[in-house]
Structure formats: C-alpha cells, structure tokens
Amino acid sequence: MAKVKAKSGLSKFNKFLFILLIILVIATVVIVAVSSPKMPVAPKEEFVDEPKIDEFQAGTYGGVKFDTVDDVVAYYVECFNYNKTLTASYTENGEAKTYYKLLGDETLSVENIMIEGQPAPSIITNLVPGVLDGLFKGAPKGLPPAANRDPVYDQRDDGPDGSKIPQTESHLTAEDVLACNVTDNKDGTISITIQPKAQILSMADQDPQGRFFNVLGDISETVNNISVLSFSEGTIEENFVVNYAGGTGTVKINTKTKEITEADYEMDVHIDVQHANVAVIKNKSASLDIVYKNHFPASDEFLEKSRGIKRK
Predict the structure, then answer these.
(1) φ and ψ at 96, to 5 degrees?
(2) Which of 43, 172, 179, 192 has the fewest CB atoms below 10 angstroms from its CB?
C-alpha cells in the first residue's frame, strides 16, 4: 500500500508566508511613498498571556469528577489517545483505505495586516485571499497535533535533532495549560475547552502550543530567503516574532465510551516584524494574524472535494 503523503495545506504554508512577506515588503514601500511623514504609528503594546475562556470550576460533569486542572488534562489526554486508536473504512478515489474514524477539516485565514501601525491598503489586502487560495488546500486530518489521516503515518519529522515524533498519543500536560473548563451537556456528553500557554515560534510537540495544535514550526528560514529584506538592528529572532497565543480547542466527549464526537480547534498566531529594511526604506514594521481552524467531524462534502474520500 502506498504511503499517504503527510503534506497538507498547512505544510505548504511557509511557501505562502514567503509570498505574503514579499507583499508586505512591497506594501511598506507603498505606504511610505503615499503617506505623510508625520503619519502616527500606533505604539506597540506589551503582550500579556491572558485566559480567553471561563475559569475551571471543580465538580462532577456527566458522571466524571474533576477536582483540579490536572484531572481535566489527564481526562482529555486519555480520551485523545483512545480516539486515535479508532479507525474506519473509507475509499479514496475508489481505493479502499483505513483512516482515523474521526477526521476533521482545516481552514486558514490571514487577518489584521498592518504596516507601520496602520491597516494595509486595500490593494494589498485584496491580493491575499487569491494567493492564499492558490497555495493552501485543506486536507482531512486526525485530531491535532496530527501529521496524517492514516495512523500508520501520523508522525512528524521535525523533532529534536531530526527525530520523528509520533502523533498518535497526546503529550499535553497540566503545565502546558493556561486555562480550561468543563461543561455538562446534559445528554451524556461533556465538553472540555483548553487554552494552552502562549509560545514564541512554537515547535511540534516541544512546547505548550506544539503539544496541542498543528503548529508551523521554525519559519525563520523563510525570512532568511527574502534577499531584499534586512534589519536595521537586532537579529531575526528579535525582529521577526511569531507569537502563538489565545487559541483554544473544545472537544465533546461521550463519557460512557470516552469517544470524542465533535471538536473545534482554533490556533491563533501573531507575526510581528520590526526594524525592517527594504531597499532605501529603513527601520519599518509590519504585522499580521493567522487563524488556523480544525473542525471534527469533517463533512462528506469536504472529504470528497479535498481528497476524493468517501465514508463507507
């Protein structure tokens, strides 16, 4: 049986990011050329990692007792691991396949493009959807973190020292969690919502965000490849900040079977570029937000349209 490629829209995102940064470089020139030299620049706010969800309340939910955040995370990990043992039969372009029972979709958007503290001109923002649609093609995935829809190949190749990281078990810990809560849905299911702690330049399975989301990994090489871009002071690490913060995931669990019946993950990433030099333009700034979402279960329409997959 041929290996199912782990490539997805997200795995190609660095190519899109490279093109987007080129657009931002051009936009910086446009902004400077058409703006008054006295145009105010919004001050950069100090980042604070704050909970975006309700606080955890100890109690019994759907017959399951949760006394601490550790209990919530342990139950989430237990259910995650169990669900990644569940498979189902599919056909992909007519060929029989065995994939995860619970498959989800993936969508990505780029928002809040700012240059020198000001919204990017419409001529720039209008380019982004077309470029993004041409490069980002969502694919069916297992529960994140996930590298594949086939559990046999669900591993990442970007672990420490080039090691492979299995994604069939969650390595999330209570120390990774900024906030969480539990809701009793009164129908035999509970919903657990988790917000992992913020992380700069998250790496797969190596930090709070990487143990919960499908993160982008090290994208500094993307910046290095833009030959017309340099920095008036500091290093790439200091001036090209990729901050994962505020994203959450919610899973609905049947407490009798511990099966996850529905889930939504939203990974929020803020990219901030400071002290950028572009040709004769010196010491400028730009920023943007990336919103990456996974919804489970994926619709039949998404499965067939994206990869020709049908449920049996």
Answers:
(1) -65, 135
(2) 43
* Contact indicator for 22, 226 with CB cutoff of 8 Å: yes
The alpha-helical segments, DSSP class H, found in 48-199 are 69-83, 122-125, 127-135
Question: Which among 5, 16, 11 is positioned nearest to 214, based on CA atoms?
Answer: 11
- Is residue 85 classed exposed, middle or buried when 0-12, 13-18 and 19+ CB atoms within 10 A define those classes? exposed
Could you say which DSSP state residue 228 is in?
T
pTM over 0.85: yes
Provide the β-strand partners of residue 45.
Answer: none
- Give the separation between CA 197 and CA 194, rounded to whole angstroms: 10
**pLDDT single digits (tens) 201-252:** 998 899 999 999 999 887 767 667 777 677 889 887 888 889 999 999 999 9
The size of the chain, in residues, is 312
Alpha helices in the chain (DSSP H): 13-34, 69-83, 122-125, 127-135, 220-224, 236-239, 300-307
Separation of alpha carbons 99 and 203, rounded Å: 25
Name 159's Cβ contacts closer than 8 Å, sequence gap at least 6. Answer: 165, 204, 205, 206
**Mean pLDDT calculated for residue range 160-166:** 79
What one-letter code names the amino acid at 216?
A: L
Which segments of 62-209 does DSSP mark as H helices, in order? 69-83, 122-125, 127-135
Determine contact, residues 259/83, Cβ cutoff 8 Å.
Answer: yes
